Every structure is written in C-alpha cells, then in structure tokens.
Amino acid sequence: MKLLKPFLIAALALVSVAALAQEATIRKNLAERLPNLPAIDEVNKTPMPGVYEVLVNKSDIFYTDAEGNYLIQGSMIDTKARVDLTEKRVEKLTAIAFKDLPLKDSFTIVRGNGRRKMAMFTDPNCGYCKRIERELMKVDNVTVHMFLYPILSEDSADKSRNIWCAKDKAKTYANWMQREIAPPEAKCDAAAVARNFEFGKKARITGTPTLIFANGTRVPGAIGVEQIEKQLAEAKP
Predict the structure, then answer these.
(1) Tell me: the pLDDT tens digits for 96-112?
(2) Could you list the residue range(s) of the whole structural domain that residue 227 is in?
(3) What is the domain-level CATH number for residue 191?
C-alpha cells in the first residue's frame, strides 16, 4: 500500500494538470473566436461527458465541448432525476445570504407569530408585486422584510420615498398595493431607498418582485401561495 501511494499522488497530479490544460484551451479558443463574449469567470465539468460549463457575468451559463468549438445556451436537464441542472446551478450562484441583507433599510410586515423569515424587493408601481402581495396575505406566521426598490420609473422613486417616510410604513405600503390608496406626500431622510438600489445592483437583482428566503434562495417574479409555503418550509432552520 505504501508503494502505491506515490503513484496515486502522481496520477492525481497528472489529472489536475490535464484539467488545467483543458480549461486553458477552452478559454483561449472561445476568447479568440468570440471576442464579444464577456470575460469567462469559470470553466467546470458537467455530468454530461465531454460537455463543460462556461460561467460569465457571475451567473450566466453557457455550455461548450472540450475544444470550445461549439457554444450552447439553454438548460441542461437530468432526465433520470427530472431536475433542471442549469436552474439549480443559477439558484446557487445567485443565492444571497440572509444575514448579508441590510435589514435596517427595510420595513417589516408581520403576520401571526412572525417566526418564518423572508425578504422581498418591491417597486410600488410593479403590477406583479401587487399580485404577490395578495398571495402573501394568505401566508401566516411570517415576517416579510420589505425593501423598496424603485427601478421602473421616476414616480416609483417618489412613491418609495413617501412610503419610507410615512409614520406607518407597512400600513401605507399595504394601502397602496392592495387598495390603490396613494401614499401621502412625505419627506424625511430616505437614503435607505438609495442604498437598496445600490445593493440590488451589486446583487444583480434585475426585476421586481424578487423574493429571498432564509436559506439564501432567490426567487424572481410573482409566485403563488403554494410555492411561497414550499420555499418557507425548505428554508426552515
């Protein structure tokens, strides 16, 4: 067994060198042939023999062969497990640690005992945000940290300021999103809204609503109460 150990170490070293050479070939060929392709962050093997993942922009995924002769954009599906591997990978790449959220720049809506936690980036002029607000009304025992994220229009920024500066932020937000009662004009230090905007850009939050659950899972777009409950259950510590 002692005699085999040096050979095993040498074999592993050769495999590592070969993997690095393979990655270098893919990087070189794609960069030369596709000069408009963003800088490659990572090259990784996939479960499919001969197919490699090419990661750009931290979360955009392409697939290529060992020589970089072909580039594929789309989903890789594990047909045996019936799992979208690309979707799972993107979820992992875009996950945001709940502890890293700037909760001081949010306000909370608490229902029931508020034990379960989630966050939502929302624009007051977002129709899908209003839709998901109706779904959230059906969810009990939850605390929702609401981040005002005005990305749709100048009026979105005005409404966000008025909501943030209201005496009762949660009530003012709910009145607008659920009942179309416009938030009264209000002024205060609304720097938190600007900080949300900067945080969202860095975290690549490109649309509203965007939900973030306690386990870091990010879900873009309006989802139904069943899906919200499922995510809350999966995020349970």
Answers:
(1) 889 999 999 999 999 99
(2) 98-234
(3) 3.40.30.10
Residues 211 and 114: beta-carbon distance below 8 Å: no
More confident residue, 9 or 58: 58
- Classify 54 as helix, strand or coil: strand
* Cα–Cα distance list, 154 to 32, 148, 151 (Å): 42, 13, 8
The answer to whether residues 83 and 122 belong to one domain is: no
d(CA 171, CA 174): 5
Q: Is the pLDDT of residue 6 over 70?
A: no
In a domain? residue 159: yes
Among 94, 118, 143, give the residue marking a domain's end. Answer: 94
**pLDDT given at position 2:** 53
Q: Tell me, yes or no, whether 122 and 165 share the same domain.
A: yes
Q: Distance between CA 96 and CA 146 in Å, rounded?
A: 15
C-alpha span between 60 and 81 (Å, rounded): 23
Look over the chain and give the mean of its residue pLDDT values, rounded to a whole number: 91
